[in-house]
User: What shape does this take?
Amino acid sequence: MNFVRRLYDWVLGWSESRWGTAALGVLSFVESSFFPVPPDVLLLALCLGRPKRAFFYAFVCTLFSVLGALGGYAIGYFLWQTAAGEYTGLANWFFERGIFTVEGFETVKALFDKWDFWIIFTAGFTPIPFKLFTIAGGLFGIDLVGFVVAGIVSRGLRFFVEAWLIWRLGAPIKVFIDRYFNWLALGFTVLLVGGFVLVRYFL
Assistant: This one.
């Protein structure tokens, strides 16, 4: 936990650098495939420091996060092989080090088989580890167009809502988001997905 906290503080430190925007792009890219710290940390700090550029930062965050998701998709598609029902290649390296589990990927596969677009959307918007689903998306060969659209919509909503809140309400909202982000994201997703389910059910 101390290592994670130091990593968190290191990411936050980039907000005070002239390379903050570049760091945001790099962080957004790598977080979608393997890095553990979400880009929201740096996004909120940059937006708070320069509120007038909040939507530009959200755009950078969304763009590179989706590009990183494609990188995760490529890892799953080209490097994370399966053979005769067994995982091989890069998969074994991750499993042996406990970064991911076989059971976790089997669960994700079952979810993809049933929900597809909504799985990527939910993973992209909520605190669920996005990288797990981007790699799994490539591994299981889900439709690439739907994958990209879900990534753009979910990541764009997440980052632009955060940027708008900072732009509109300033410092107090950052404290609130930091404290309750997980619950806010989950609640929003439940309402959004639930609305679509109701529409589909009744129409």
